[in-house]
Structures are given as C-alpha cells and as structure tokens.
Amino acid sequence: MYVGESFRSPMILKAFMLITAATILSGCGIEKSLLYYPDSSAPSEAALKADNLQYWPSASDYRGLVSADEENYPNGTIIAFHGNGGTAADRAFYGKVLGAMGYRVILAEYPRYGGRKGELGEKAFVADAGETVRLAFMKYGGPLFLLGESLGCGVAAAVAGGAPATIDGVICITPWDTLESVARSKFPFLPVRLLLKDKYDNIGNLGSFKGRIAVVGAERDVVIPMGHARNLYNSLSGTARKMWIIKGAGHNDWPASVNTSWWKELMDFVKGN
Question: How far apart are CA 218 and CA 241, in angstroms?
C-alpha cells in the first residue's frame, strides 16, 4: 500500500501513527521491545578469574557476582543493580573501586540475564532483587546500601521503598523520575499511562524511604536526559539527599569521568560520615 496516497489526511496519518505505536508498545510490551536487552550468556570461568569474581551466593543457583577474596569488608555491603543491557559481569569496575574502599560489592543479576532463568519485567525483577537483599542482610548484616544504574535505579528504588529498615542508603546513577515520564518524552502522541505495564516509579517508591539518597546525573545524557534525575532529586523530602552532576559525561561513558576521590565523597555522604 502506498502510504503517500492512502494517508494524505493529517487526521488519518495521526491515527495510523497512534495505532502503529500502540501496537509496538502493547503486545510484547514496551518493557520487552524497548526497555530490556537481556544478554543470556553466563560469564565464563576465564572472565570471572580475570576480574577476580565468583558466583554469589553459590555457583549452582547464583543471584550475582562478588569478589573472590575472602577478606573483611569493614564498611558494609553494596548491592549494585546494572542497566538494561549487558550483564552483572560487565560492571566489575564497581567491585574494584568500592572493594578497595572497604565495601563488599554484590553485582546483582536479573532473571533472564547472565544465564539466569526467570521472567522479564518489573514484578519479577523487584521480587528477585528483594530476595537478594534479604539473603545478603541475613549473611552479612549491615550497613547495607543499594546502588542502581539506569534501569537498576528502578529496581533499587522499589526494593528500598518496601524495606527501609534494612537498607541504609541508596545511590541512583543516571536515573529517571518515572518510566512514564521517560516514555511520554519519547512518545508524546501516545497515552503511555494506559500502555505501560511496568511503572518503575522512582519518585513514589523512594518517597517512603528514610535513609540517605545520592542522585547522580550525567550532564550529556541523551538516553535519559538529566532533567529526569533533577526531577527525582527535587521530589525527595524527609531524608538526607545530595546530587552530583558528572560534567561532560553521557549515559554510558560516565565511569571514565569519575575517580576514587569522587567515589569516596559519594560513599562518605551515603554512609553518613
């Protein structure tokens, strides 16, 4: 069919765009078609050895990765939730820099990522993350901090909002305020509130959290523009909060723009030093 002939009317063209976009966003859902990019490959033994990592809590039924060193971590445990692409093994840099500062770092893995079984979606991810947090607290005690990157902020915020007594602080790196807000900016002509299955409402979820919250935005982020991080930060009340802006950095290259001193400043705030 020749679109130029059949959809000359602006109203018909708009209706066509709405139907097409709605079909994309529903059906498999925006979460599966646009939000999740699972890498189902489990990390190789060679890769784990190279980064000094091991499966946690066990190789037979793992939920993430942790340093293979059995040394003491006096400053507590950080559970890091990565973004929507790659796997936990790709975030080994968290363990290296924060481990050197005295923090045990668990690189949490999602269902359907990194060789794990399960379902994609907010409900499955948050339930799985909640169990990871429970097991970590039972094994190590506190203090316990959650670090979320991009999509991981949505997971961390949801868990923190449901278990504020267990979690001492939350770090949100390149976050959104709500998934709906991001979707509206990408699809302004759609009723995204009706189409979204997953909500990932960071504003609502962190609204009941009373621990310390660090918000980190990347100045040149075009994937999740920094305005969303500002909106999240400005919405927080009733708790200690601080925001960092990484100058000249984008959504994916920000780690190259921070150093050990920056991480220490961030963690000193979250820990309350």
Answer: 17
As a 3-state breakdown, the chain gives helix, strand, coil percent values, each rounded to 5, of 45, 20, 40
Q: Choose among 204, 269, 207: nearest CA to 242.
A: 269
DSSP label of 183: H
Provide the 3-class DSSP secondary structure of residue 37: strand
Query: What's the structural domain count of the chain?
Result: 1
pLDDT, mean of residues 132-138: 95
Domain holding 231, by residue range, is 3-271
241-270 pLDDT per residue, tens: 999 999 999 999 999 999 999 999 999 999
Picking from 57, 55, 53, 54, the residue whose alpha carbon sits closest to that of residue 136 is: 57
Residue 153 · residue 209 · CB < 8 Å = no
| pTM, two decimal places | 0.88
State how far Cα 158 lies from the chain centre.
10
Q: Predicted confidence band at 70 (pLDDT cuts at 50, 70, 90)?
A: confident
Domain of residue 148, CATH code: 3.40.50.1820
